[in-house]
Amino acid sequence: MSLFYDFNKIDNLIIQKEIEIMVQHIIRELIVEFGKCETEAKELVKKSGVVKSLMEDSMGFHESPYHWALSILTDANDVEALEKYLSH
Which of 9-13, 20-24, 45-49 has the lowest mean pLDDT? Predict the structure, then answer.
């Protein structure tokens, strides 16, 4: 057994886990704050490219899940959900 670890693999696993957590928080925001059902929220996140964006630029982790949800809804041109946001 080698005493050396492949730190790139470890870092990748950590980043993947953090992306998974962020995606779950974004989905939760879409459901709780914008009234999306779970299936629709997951589909919006999938189509949005959030995962790719977070993989390419870790600065995306500095954005709140709420702001990610707003961005996703804006890109999807979901006027109904955005009106709900504006009426708060």
Answer: 9-13
Cα separation of 66 and 33, whole Å? 8
Distance CA 48, CA 25 (A): 15
- Calpha distance 30→52 (Å, rounded): 19
Higher pLDDT pick, 9 / 88:
9
CA distances, 14 to each of 37, 56, 75, 87 (Å): 29, 14, 28, 38
Name the percent of the chain lying above pLDDT 90.
72
CA distances in angstroms from 46 to 24, 41, 64, 81, 82, listed in the order given: 12, 9, 18, 18, 19
Q: How many residues does the chain have?
A: 88
Q: Does residue 35 contact residue 69 with C-beta atoms inside 8 Å? A: no
